[in-house]
Write a structure and sequence with these properties.
Elements: E1 5-11, H1 25-28, H2 37-46, E2 59-61, E3 68-70, E4 95-99, E5 107-111, H3 137-140, H4 143-146, E6 149-155, E7 162-163, H5 180-183, H6 193-204, E8 206-209, E9 212-216, E10 233-234, H7 235-247, H8 252-263, E11 284-291, E12 299-306, H9 318-335, H10 344-358, H11 388-404, H12 412-432, E13 434-436, H13 437-444, H14 468-473, E14 479-486, E15 489-495, H15 496-504, H16 510-522, H17 524-527, E16 536-537, H18 542-549, H19 570-579, H20 583-594, E17 606-607, E18 613-614, H21 623-637, H22 639-642, H23 651-655, H24 661-664, H25 671-676
Antiparallel strand pairs: 1-6, 2-12, 3-6, 4-5, 5-7, 8-9, 10-11, 11-12, 13-14, 14-15, 15-16, 17-18
Helix pairs in contact: 6-21, 7-9, 7-21, 9-11, 10-11, 10-12, 11-12, 11-15, 15-16, 15-19, 19-20, 19-21, 20-21
């Protein structure tokens, strides 16, 4: 049997084809060269300058597949070899890919290197910067060396490759083989008809790039003739889909998604000749097919990211990078594959996101300052400033990063900055964002215009800001985190996603977290209604709606982001309930949603005060509605998996005071107040 192999090694670069095309020896008639270590390193030294055609924002691959990445830790170390036969079964390092050479029948093969792993003991930076604490230099000054190596391998000798069975759903290109680590513990059960339908729809929404699954469409309604950007893969929207796949034992699509979006990380994006800082993750990307070098016969697939330059309002997606970090941790927790987190490019991607979020500015608060529309609520809704949703996701991403960052000379200052920010942010949110009956009564009696370091009303909040609806609405036993806090302004609206993530991440104290669920239970008809869950409560109406939304016809009262009901929030509600020992509340909400979602064809959102009508502009076959339902079902059936996705209280953060007030003599630090609440 004719055997042909070709190995190409190149460093990934911004704005270029990330994989160069290769000709099969079976088709071109030449004998492939054999490579040794010296040849490989020679290719490596040249690859940064050859075969790299620049393209505007596109990342392409030409009929070749990513087999795997390696980290450059020691150039003298033999991590792989072109003629090395030392490939054996290893559950932690298996990689499946599809081979299609000419008329050879496509099949899935698995190449599994037997490489000793000692990555946790090595620096994540390039050798020339090992002792450099300015971590951004890894991309900015020596970025090309920090890129991962790409190994392309096409092999037709069946004696050297292990065939892996491939199961495919009808009309879907998704490999649904389960990851070994998860399949061993997978609970076998009979799926309901609605769950079978949901899985079929989720599989149909999968997007492939160069033959590999890389995400899911935002919506996949065949009847929709004007999909706008709903035919793209959104980082935020893919998270529930990713969790559904991971809980079902399929980690490949999530790994591909994480790596490909990392390659898109803020290389080129401008609005009116201005670009935001490096580290920004795109809101979404689309797989496009374009002609190859102007030819009408040859085509290639490209990834076209959107960083907000095409979005309505031209707002950068602040939450994309935060969700990416959260999903990266979830991938490691649910698959047991922590090698992905420890790659040089992944570690650098984390650090660039953190650098963007932790940059010093004029702000006096540890919370993250953003513009309106920079998160799930992506239209003008009066959340500019320090919205709860961003702060909760920011806190979660910082906790994830604290777990995943490899500590060495190049990262120790960043890790310290993360810990300090976590400590300050948790105190700030618990002390100033939390409201219950006692706190509202305290605000009601506030004195204003206090000029003192010991002021009680630190933000000069006027008691008249307390809305009339809140006085009668707040329950005696519950409470919640307000939507926003700025000088002389408190947004008392209840934002569901932000409050749920304060529970999941332990941003709130145990007492506060219980209070949130108590409030939801007491106000079930308002927050859950006939379809879980309200994105915010109450809706903006009348003159308030006209001023704050700018008369937005999509955000009319009790619709879309202005009090609409979003079924995708169900999985986050389920996770929070499981953490707090209230799965009964989650089950009740899931049962409620299950009665309508399939009948209504899986809408994006629902309208009216009780969520009775399908949203007037709601897309059908909305993927994160489908995935949110499936993830909720699996979390309830496997609560031990849910425990891998949330955080418990970190007492070290409460003890880590960085305000220095106790050393100035001006007044004593009040940090102990937040810590004492845990014992209540």
């Amino acid at each position: 049997m004719t055997t042909g192999s070709y190995i190409g090694i190149s460093t990934m670069r911004p704005c270029c084809r990330i994989l160069s095309s290769c000709k099969s020896p079976l088709l071109s008639g030449f004998s492939p060269p054999k490579f040794n270590d010296s040849t490989i390193m020679g290719i490596l030294s040249k690859s940064r300058h050859q075969n790299s055609t620049h393209r505007h924002r596109y990342y392409t691959c030409n009929n070749t597949q990513i087999v795997g990445y390696i980290r450059v830790i020691n150039l003298n170390r033999r991590d792989f070899s072109g003629s090395d036969s030392n490939w054996v079964h290893s559950r932690n390092f298996s990689t499946s890919f599809c081979v299609n050479i000419g008329s050879v029948r496509p099949r899935v093969v698995s190449l599994i290197p037997n490489v000793a792993s000692d990555f946790r003991n090595h620096s994540t930076s390039v050798e020339s910067h090992v002792n450099d604490t300015s971590f951004e230099k890894i991309y900015i000054q020596n970025g090309l060396n920090a890129k991962p190596l790409v190994i392309e391998r096409i092999e037709t000798d069946q004696s050297k490759l292990e065939e892996v069975s491939e199961e495919r759903c009808e009309g879907s290109n998704v490999n649904i083989d389960n990851v070994n680590d998860l399949s061993e513990n997978k609970v076998e059960r009979e799926l309901s008809e609605i769950e079978k339908e949901a899985w079929k729809l989720l599989q149909d929404a999968v997007v492939t790039y160069c033959g590999n699954p890389v995400g899911t469409l935002a919506a996949n309604d065949p009847a929709d003739k004007q999909p706008l950007n709903y035919d793209q893969v959104f980082i935020r929207d893919f998270v529930p889909s990713a969790l559904a796949f991971l809980l079902n034992g399929d980690g490949d699509i999530v790994k591909n998604f994480l790596l490909h979006t990392l390659q898109l990380q803020s290389w080129e994006k401008t609005v009116d000749c201005y670009s935001p800082g490096q580290g920004l993750m795109p809101a979404s990307f689309k797989v496009r097919t374009v002609s190859l070098d102007g030819s009408n016969e040859a085509f290639e697939e490209v990834l076209d990211p959107d960083f907000g330059e095409s979005a309505i309002g031209r707002v950068a997606p602040v939450d994309s990078g935060l969700w990416w970090i959260i999903l990266l941790r979830a991938y490691g927790k649910l698959t047991g594959d922590y090698s992905l987190q420890d790659r040089v490019d992944v570690q650098t991607g984390i650090r660039l996101i953190l650098k963007l979020c932790l940059t010093d500015g004029f702000d006096m608060f540890p919370s993250l300052l953003v513009t309106d529309g920079s998160c799930m609520i992506d239209r003008r809704m009066g959340i500019h400033g320090h919205p709860l949703e961003i702060q909760a996701l920011f806190y979660s991403a910082l906790r994830c990063s604290r777990e995943m960052l490899i500590v060495n000379d190049a990262t120790k200052n960043l890790v310290a900055a993360v810990s300090n920010r976590l400590s300050a942010l948790s105190f700030h949110m618990r002390e100033y964002y939390w409201v219950d009956m006692k706190k509202i009564n305290e605000i009601y009696r506030y004195k204003t215009e206090e000029y003192s370091t010991d002021a009680v009303n630190k933000f000069n909040i006027y008691p008249e800001q307390i809305p009339s609806w809140l006085v009668d609405w707040i329950s005696e036993e519950g409470g919640y985190f307000i939507g926003n806090l700025q000088p002389a302004h408190m947004d008392f609206r209840f934002f569901t996603l932000g409050n749920l993530w304060t529970i999941v991440s332990s941003l709130g104290t145990t007492r506060q977290n219980k209070g949130i669920l108590n409030l939801i239970e007491a106000k079930w008809d308002d927050i859950i209604g006939q379809m879980p869950l309200k994105i915010c409560y109450p809706a903006l109406e009348g003159e308030e709606w006209r001023i704050i939304t700018g008369c937005d016809p999509k955000n009319t009262p009790w619709s879309y982001h202005n009090g609409g009901s979003w079924p995708t929030l169900l999985w986050q509600f389920t996770l929070a309930c499981i953490k707090m020992g209230r799965p009964d509340m989650a089950q009740k909400a899931v049962d409620l949603a299950e009665k309508r979602l399939s009948v209504d064809r899986w809408p994006e959102y629902y309208d009216t005060r009780n969520g009775r009508f399908i949203g007037k502009q709601s897309r059908l076959m909305q993927t994160w509605t489908i995935a949110g339902f499936l993830t909720s079902k699996m979390l309830l059936q496997n609560p031990e998996k849910a425990s891998l996705l949330f955080w418990e209280e970190d007492f070290e953060l409460l003890q880590n005071c960085v305000c220095m007030l106790n050393k100035t003599g001006r007044r004593k630090c009040s940090r102990f107040a937040a810590r004492s609440q845990i014992l209540v």
